[in-house]
Design goal:
Blueprint lengths: L13 H12 L1 H12 L14 H42 L2 H38 L13 H8 L6 E4 L14 E7 L3 E2 L19 H16 L5 E9 L24 H9 L5 E10 L6 E11 L2 E11 L16 H49 L13 H4 L8 H28 L5 H10 L41
Parallel strand pairs: 1-4
Antiparallel strand pairs: 2-7, 3-7, 4-5, 5-6, 6-7
């Protein structure tokens, strides 16, 4: 092999590090991520898609905890401030200059304390953001653990083999959170009823197989056949949200909690051989680009009905992160610039931070109570009225934070290459599988000529169910979906 110098490359966990650093710098995003990953909920979480959700949940919890502590202290200082203002006015009106002077000194002291709190919190936030962005340690090791239930739920998302999707998504596709649809088609049927010619003459004996055998073969061999290192292949049962209840305790052990992401393999196989009502198994292929910037996925389903075989194919793409999540790359890291940047931040945000603290706390508490009431209402309907709840997810966090404006030429061509390689790999694997089972592939050769003319256009715009607003609010376009995250006031 030719020896050449090593060029700089993206870290494999670059996307995770960027998002973990962003929660320390962007309060709206921190509160959304904290609620989405660690908050109480009934709906299933979205797929990770190249993001270490456990690390992100830990950093979001740390960031929101820091901001909450700062605002509680600022709220107490705000109360002292207004008491001092009243004392100044009262002293001047009553002719007690000593009282007015003492109260004025308190005002200056309160401003000084507020300035110090703002600077300290911002310095800690920037320090944590830079640490997770550039440290050699794993991102999840740089923040404390969250609640045990949230930790367990997020660890279960490492290899999920079931994805509940909200009923509203049924009108489009069940692959919620996979990004923008690039192509959706059913390939031309292949005749699998004729045996191949035997080496010694005559016809060979057909080797029986089913869709599970075909899916298993592709999942095992496709990475090598397609020439895509790091390809993730897994059979997943996609279930319509309200139908989750009928899968039993293995999937939904507690009707008042989200369903499991990992279920017994026989259920996944059943969704391929005998699809249920709103329950079908797909072979999900995911290829994460350099540094997680682009994620290309292809969802396949073998339609095996004697005497023919066809493939249901859906391809999706998620572009790079939005520009707002690269804030850690522009923070002064040391020296006078760092010191002066913190001084300017604290000075310009002290007044809004001090006087706005009670309002921010009030809005967060109101949003928390509203969300708790909605969950309590839903749980009462489930337990008392035996309501059929939609446990399906609407999207994924990775899809929400993406922006087509950040898609460059390299990512676009890489994505097209990924999809063409996946398509070719599926065709090669299918042909080899059929030959191994002594099936005449002449019908396959004809279908392959048609399939190979298909192209993939990697472009679009994020017009999915929601985006993160300035106050961390999420507006969903369909279904019960994920619970709305906590509202967050403007970051002072």
């Amino acid at each position: 092999m030719r020896q050449v110098p090593n060029l700089p490359t993206y870290d494999k966990d670059a996307t995770t590090r960027l998002l973990c650093s962003s929660v320390h710098l962007d309060d709206a995003f921190a509160r959304y991520a904290h609620q989405e990953l660690s908050g109480d909920r009934l709906t299933a979480p979205g797929l990770p898609l190249g993001v270490n959700l456990l690390a992100l949940a830990r950093h979001a919890s740390r960031a929101t905890g820091r901001t909450d502590l700062r605002d509680r202290r600022l709220a107490w200082l705000c109360a002292v401030w207004w008491l001092a203002v009243l004392s100044v006015v009262g002293g001047l009106v009553s002719g007690a200059p000593g009282v007015a002077e003492a109260a004025f000194a308190v005002l200056l002291l309160v401003l000084g304390c507020a300035w110090w709190l703002m600077r300290r919190a911002e310095a800690e936030a920037r320090g944590d953001a830079l640490a997770v962005r550039y440290s050699a340690a794993r991102p999840q090791d740089l923040a404390p653990e969250v609640a045990d239930e949230a930790e367990r739920r997020l660890r279960g998302l490492r290899r999920p083999n079931m994805v509940p999707y909200t009923q509203g998504a049924e009108r489009q596709n069940p692959f919620v959170g996979s990004g923008d649809k690039i192509k959706e088609t059913v390939w031309q049927p292949i005749d699998i009823s004729r045996p191949a010619d035997a080496p010694g003459g005559g016809k060979a004996t057909l080797v029986p197989f089913d869709a599970v055998d075909l899916h298993t073969y592709l999942a095992r061999e496709l990475g090598n056949l397609a020439g895509l290192e790091g390809l993730r292949a897994q059979n997943r049962l996609y279930v319509l949200g309200p139908q989750v209840f009928y899968l039993g305790d293995d999937v939904l052990p507690d009707r008042l909690r989200p369903p499991n992401s990992e279920i017994p393999p026989p259920l996944v196989k059943a969704g391929l051989l005998k699809p249920g009502a709103g329950m079908r198994t797909y072979l999900s292929l995911e290829r994460v680009g350099e540094g997680g910037r682009v994620i290309v996925s292809m969802h396949l389903r073998a339609r095996l009905q004697h005497p023919s075989l066809s493939w249901e194919v859906a391809a999706y793409c998620i572009p790079p992160l939005h520009a707002r999540y690269y804030g850690a790359d522009y923070i002064p890291r040391d020296g006078f610039e760092r010191w002066w940047s913190l001084v300017r931040f604290a000075t310009s945000h002290t007044w809004s931070g001090l006087t706005g603290a009670p309002g921010r706390i009030g809005r967060r508490n109101a949003e928390r109570k509203r969300r708790a009431r909605e969950l309590e209402k839903a749980r009462k309907e489930i337990t008392k009225k035996h309501a059929l709840y939609d446990y399906g997810t609407t999207d994924s966090l990775r899809e929400r934070v993406a922006s087509w404006d950040q898609l460059g030429h390299s990512e676009r061509t890489d994505s097209q290459d990924f999809l063409h390689r996946l398509q070719q790999g599926v065709l090669i694997a299918t042909e080899r599988f059929l030959k191994d089972h002594n099936v005449d592939t002449s019908s396959f050769d004809q279908a392959q000529q048609v399939i190979n003319t298909q192209t993939y256009n990697i472009s679009g715009d994020i017009t999915g169910p929601a985006n993160i607003g300035n106050n961390g609010q999420i507006s969903a376009a369909y279904g019960q979906g994920a619970q709305a995250p906590a509202a967050a006031g403007p970051t002072p």
